[in-house]
């Protein structure tokens, strides 16, 4: 597979090492072939905006934890939505509860959907279908 | 309220002072003004009579000024106390708001920070069960399943505690609700499974029955009462759940009845207490929050709830809400 053939990456913004490990495992088990890029806090997530401006391929979707060190998920979302390039990328919030005031704030800021953690592949695919980006999520076996 | 009002009238010190000052001035005036007049005019009856009339008018004018001054003073004092009270109310409200915000932050931390390690325990034990099953004997697999059962229970407990604390502090929104429609929506998933398992369901809620209530609060009440009825009647022969409602005296009375295992009336108050359970977890799993949640919602919505039961003969839960 050449670089041009690579499916678009997925940016996973998650600080909790256990959640990160379990999410990556869930994706690996289903042989998701999209490369996963990782940011471990809000600042690292914002640093990606500059890389995309410099021509780094835009992710198919950003999975963004709400509670993050340094810059929280809502603040990251606000920056993403305000950026000319990054505002095109769908953002899915990762939360520990659907009954969460922050989730309402996230929808006000224009988030596309949310997943209640733990992130498993089935939930991820449901959300991908819901926000119509199923086409760019590729399994190795099917893709 | 009326009692307070009467007591104020009996012993109000301000009014007492005004009357006292007024009476004292009156007595002094009568005593001394007549003495002074006699000294000044002597025995001339006509002049004395004219001056007596003038004295009367003077007294009225003087006491009117005096009364005005005393009443003004009382009002100023009253306003000062009122302002103090208002300031105290504002201060207390601000304190309550701060406490509420802190509680909200606490709930948020509970939901996030307590669930995070649980996800790890659950996730990794699932991986062990799925990927390492061949290296675990039956006991090892059973232990892992028990670990996951404990995690699920803990997760439910956190969710229920959050639901309870949310019901305690959320702002209620009154809406004109059709009870039957809400029963159908909330009850569908619970009663469908019950019917599927051979249960009989009777719903007798008139379609026209409306009430002015908070939708989420009412949904919490209906969901928990129906789940309760289904849970405790599932095991009996030909299980039956009935929900009915009628309007009476500006209230709506909702009854949820089942023919399940029932309960002894000596626990009829306790069953609404949070974390109170009457059965072993392995017989009837639960966190003991459901009925407490019902009571919290009903109380906050200005209603009342009570229950009747008999061991082995089922239970009836009543909810009365203002219409």
Query: Averaged pLDDT of chain A, please?
Result: 87
Largest sheet of chain A: 5 strands, parallel
What do we call the CATH homologous superfamily of chain A? Answer: Response regulator
Task: List the total number of helices of chain A.
Answer: 5
Report the total helices of chain B: 7
Strand arrangement, major sheet of chain A: 2-1-3-4-5
- Poorly predicted runs of chain B: none
Could you list the spans of chain A in which at least 5 consecutive residues all have pLDDT below 50? none
Number of strands of chain A: 5
Overall form of chain A: globular
What is the highest CATH level, the class of chain A?
Answer: Alpha Beta
Domain count of chain B: the total is 2
Please state the structural category of chain B.
alpha+beta
What is the tally of beta strands of chain B? 7
In a few lines, what is going on in this structure?
By secondary structure, chain A is α/β, with parallel strands linked by helices.
Strand-helix topology:
The complex is a heterodimer of chains A (143) and B (323).
Chain A: E1 10-13, H1 17-29, E2 36-39, H2 42-53, E3 61-65, H3 73-82, E4 91-95, H4 101-108, E5 113-116, H5 121-130
Parallel strand pairs in A: 1-2, 1-3, 3-4, 4-5
Helix pairs in contact in A: 2-3
Chain B: H1 2-11, H2 13-41, H3 45-131, H4 138-169, E1 174-178, H5 179-196, E2 200-204, E3 210-214, H6 215-233, E4 240-248, E5 251-258, H7 290-300, E6 304-309, E7 315-322
Parallel strand pairs in B: 2-4
Antiparallel strand pairs in B: 1-3, 4-5, 5-7, 6-7
Helix pairs in contact in B: 2-3, 3-4, 4-7, 5-6, 6-7
């Amino acid at each position: 597979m050449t670089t041009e053939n690579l499916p678009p990456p997925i940016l996973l913004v998650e600080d909790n090492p256990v959640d990160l490990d379990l999410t990556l495992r869930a994706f690996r088990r289903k042989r998701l072939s999209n490369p996963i890029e990782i940011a471990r806090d809000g600042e690292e997530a914002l640093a990606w905006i500059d890389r995309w401006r410099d021509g780094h391929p835009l992710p198919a979707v950003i999975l963004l934890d709400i509670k993050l060190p340094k810059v929280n998920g809502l603040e990251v979302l606000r920056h993403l939505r305000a950026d000319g390039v990054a505002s095109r990328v769908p953002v899915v919030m990762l939360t520990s509860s659907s009954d969460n005031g922050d989730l309402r704030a996230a929808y006000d800021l224009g988030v596309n959907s949310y997943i209640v953690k733990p992130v498993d592949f089935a939930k991820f695919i449901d959300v991908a279908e819901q926000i119509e980006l199923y086409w760019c999520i590729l399994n190795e076996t099917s893709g | 309220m009326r009692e307070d009002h009467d007591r104020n009238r009996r012993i109000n010190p301000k009014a007492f002072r005004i009357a006292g000052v007024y009476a004292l001035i009156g007595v002094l005036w009568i005593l001394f003004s007549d003495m002074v007049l006699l000294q000044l005019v002597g025995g001339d009856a006509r002049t004395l009579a004219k001056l007596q009339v003038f004295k009367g008018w003077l007294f009225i004018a003087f006491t009117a000024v005096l009364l005005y001054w005393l009443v003004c003073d009382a009002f100023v004092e009253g306003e000062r106390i009122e302002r103090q009270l208002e300031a105290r109310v504002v201060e207390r409200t601000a304190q309550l708001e701060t406490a509420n915000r802190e509680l909200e932050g606490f709930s948020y931390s509970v939901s996030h920070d307590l669930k995070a390690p649980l996800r790890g325990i659950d996730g990794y034990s699932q991986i062990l069960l799925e990927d390492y099953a061949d290296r675990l004997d039956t006991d090892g697999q059973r232990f892992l399943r028990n670990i996951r059962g404990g995690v699920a229970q803990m997760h439910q407990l956190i969710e229920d505690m959050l639901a309870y604390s949310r019901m305690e502090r959320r702002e209620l929104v009154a809406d004109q609700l059709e009870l039957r429609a809400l029963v159908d929506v909330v009850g569908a998933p619970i009663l469908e499974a019950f019917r599927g398992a051979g249960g009989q369901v009777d719903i007798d809620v008139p379609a026209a029955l409306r009430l002015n209530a908070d939708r989420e609060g009412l949904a919490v009440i209906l969901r928990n009462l129906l789940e309760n009825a289904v849970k405790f009647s599932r095991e009996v022969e030909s299980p039956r759940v009935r929900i009915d409602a009628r309007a009476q005296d500006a209230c709506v009375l909702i009854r949820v009845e089942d023919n399940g295992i029932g309960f002894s009336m000596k626990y009829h108050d306790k069953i609404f207490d949070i974390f109170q359970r009457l059965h072993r977890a392995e017989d009837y799993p639960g966190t003991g929050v459901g009925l407490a949640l019902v009571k919290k919602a009903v109380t906050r919505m200005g209603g009342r709830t009570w229950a009747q039961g008999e061991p082995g003969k089922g239970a009836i839960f009543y909810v009365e809400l203002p219409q």
